[in-house]
Amino acid sequence: MLDVRRLRLLRELAHRGTIAAVAEALSFSPSAVSQQLSVLEREAGVPLLERAGRRVVLTPAAQNLVRHAEAVLERLERADAELAAVRTGLAGPVRIGSYPSATRAIAPAALAALAREHPALEARVTDVDPAGVPAALRAGELDLALVHEYDFVPSEPQPGLTGQELFTEPMYLAARTPSSLADHRTSPWIMAPPGTLCRAMTVRACQATGFTPHVRHEVDDFATVLALVALGQGVALVPHLGIAASPPSLTLTRLPISRRTRTVHRAGADDHPAVATVTAALRMAVPPELR
């Protein structure tokens, strides 16, 4: 019989790529992960891993096994949800991942409603970059998360995860005078650091207009970005949730670009009472203009 815990390790290796990454994410030593995968290989009776230089890669048999592991883990999530549904009341921790502007604009109202209606439920919010959410959910570090995607940076399907749309918000060009993207071919730009979705969206939006932006400042906080724009340090693209603290001296021009936010959780947890309750609270906390 194949061990579910070892199947989870194989699934993590398929997503993370290296034994070292799996070990770090799950708080194991690399040797322990290797040992458990070797045991799984003996249980399976066929080779699951093969060397490719200094790395290991999954064999076709292992890739098929990962697909079965995803289905098994989803069924276990459904079983956990059914057990939770017959318990009396909601209690205990539920871990919520969020991105900063949603944490500021949506989380407080949702947390207040949850504390009022389900005082024994301990909702915990952690800021997590959307790129890190899938790994955190699969590793059990989060139960639910808010993630976003942009028109120019669509999200990729993530095996083992599911969710639902929450809201869509417009994007704005922040500048000192009314203008369009094409007006800022030679302007300095203020962007989020490399590797973020916001940075990729801004670069691709400019490239779609016919130019590559010149980046002067790299800032991952919309309030600071807007303050710098107001000082004449550059221009920027900012989503609706990021304009609450916009200085009166700058102009916000709405663009035909959107940012979409959705909730994400492990497949099979749709009907888990805590997940469903938190999702409902987050939906009710969305600003009226975005519903």
Automatic annotation (TrEMBL):
Organism annotation: Streptomyces albospinus
Family label: Belongs to the LysR transcriptional regulatory family.
Statement: the UniProt record of this protein carries the keyword Transcription regulation: yes
PROSITE patterns for the chain: HTH_LYSR
InterPro entries: LysR_HTH_N, LysR_subst-bd, WH-like_DNA-bd_sf, WH_DNA-bd_sf
Record-linked Pfam families: HTH_1, LysR_substrate
Keyword annotations of the record: DNA-binding, Transcription, Transcription regulation
Keyword Chloroplast in annotation: no
Domain HTH lysR-type: 2-59
Protein's UniProt name: LysR family transcriptional regulator
